[in-house]
Amino acid sequence: MWILILSSVTVAWIILKLIRVGRRESTLPPGPPTVPLLGNLNVFPTEFAFFKFTEWAREYGDIYSLKIGPDTAVVLTSMKAVKELIDQQSGLTCDRPKSYMVDTMYEKIHAALMRYNEDWRLLRKTMHPILTPSGAAEHQPIQLMYELLNSPERFFTHLKRYSTSVITSVVFGKHFPRYECPEIDAIFKSVDAAERVFEVGAHPPVDQLPILNYIPDRWARWKRMAKWGNRLATRAYFHLLKVCEERIQNGEENGCYLENVIKNQEEYGLTRRMVGYLGGVLLDGGAHTTSAFLQTLILLLTAFPEVQRKAQEEIDRVIGQDRAPRLEDFAQLPYCQALINETHRFRPVAPLGIPHAMLNEGEYRNYVLPKGTLIFINTWGIYHDPDVYDDPETFNPDRYLVNQFGVKAGVDVRDFRNTVAFGGGRRVCPGIHLANTSLNLNVMNLLWAFDFSPPTDPKTGRPIPVDTFKYDKGAFYAPTPFRCNIKPRTPVKARIIEEEFSNAQSVFEKFEGTSSVELEPVDETF
């Protein structure tokens, strides 16, 4: 009898506990209604999550909570919330969420994604030199212009090669002259794998429901994907590391960032594995984001010819026709600066960034955020808030000429910064200055050198509009490949591009091959 009563009480207690799983605690910010066990998993978006997150922000405010099974996430959709919680409380919000996918793909030592610990602090400190712009990055845009001049129909792949080659030159001392280089193919496959592995909502909630870990690999596609990503990433990272190590051994250094790290790795307290992943995180962060931004830029210049015309008028007025742009010209080009800011706002490359996590329990606006709470910075929602921006769904660089943040008159801008696309707090992108240098140079060069226009229908002769909403799924937001016409603006500018590319060969040579690691014969011929 007592055994029956005890069993009944135990079963009832277990049922009660399970029913409470997924329920939103009263100390959390409001959010969508929950259901037992799942919380909000039943309505959690599986692709383009930022659209749904922004819809919820309009209903529940600039900070709201989601229950992901037993775990909690909060979504920030205002500059004020980002500044107060991510920047001003960076010591509390500097962690990353636990993640089976991340730990499997990157072995817990990827500086952008790993948990906050002593190894992360060590890697972050080692990354400090990359915070400053590099001379190597300033020479790379000329090859991109040369490629667009001679094979404009391949502009999409040219942008991917360029953005990858810039970061591999700066970090590993390795320049890729062609998109077809075998090494660059390995890098692209690694980046594509990361895109699919880390897309918010794309995989089962294995971290919230650990029982899923017991499912064999053959029936767990997410497990196979994470392990596949690890194989691709380590192959790319450690091949490039070996190239750099052999160059040092042969006394053929070219001044890249990782050479100094390798020579001082014992002093820095780094293992070879950590050095390889350190180069990898800089490669991943720089290659895809830069190409995605430039692809979006060309898409928008093609779609909005009046914006292109205004930017080119400014370029011609300041720089003229007889020389290519230089980095120091950028300070005199306010409309081009506005164009870059508006491109970041209109189509942010990382609409949700990389989620932060609470290192310990903390308070914000009288809410209690438990230890481990995920924190999403909803960059898309911030930049498309109609209470902050006039007609936010319209691409309009002029808004940034009215004021530096492009906001409506009367909006309080004390909490604003134009770098929210690069994250915040202790996890802000370490390559922000290098990225900006690259973008500034390329925006000037592209506008100075080329006209971008929609393709024409061969039957009617009419322009075929490009679709500014046709973007690929994934953690980063990049347009699906599209067609456009790219033509040099004048014969003089075409000649200048040819001459500058020829003059830059001596710069490229020291990054292209050595006696220890030569270029492939086809690349050397190229």
From TrEMBL:
Matching SUPFAM superfamilies: Cytochrome P450
UniProt main location, coarse: membrane
Pathways per UniProt: Secondary metabolite biosynthesis
CDD domains xref list: CYP64-like
Protein name per Swiss-Prot or TrEMBL: Cytochrome P450
GO MF annotation list: heme binding; iron ion binding; monooxygenase activity; oxidoreductase activity, acting on paired donors, with incorporation or reduction of molecular oxygen
Record flagged with keyword Lyase: no
A GO cellular component annotation in the UniProt record: membrane
Cofactor: heme
Binding locations of heme: 429
Sequence intervals crossing the membrane: none
Superkingdom per UniProt: Eukaryota
Entry membrane topology: Single-pass membrane protein
Record flagged with keyword Oxidoreductase: yes
Subcellular location: Membrane
Family, as annotated: Belongs to the cytochrome P450 family.
Keywords: Glycoprotein, Heme, Iron, Membrane, Metal-binding, Monooxygenase, Oxidoreductase, Transmembrane, Transmembrane helix
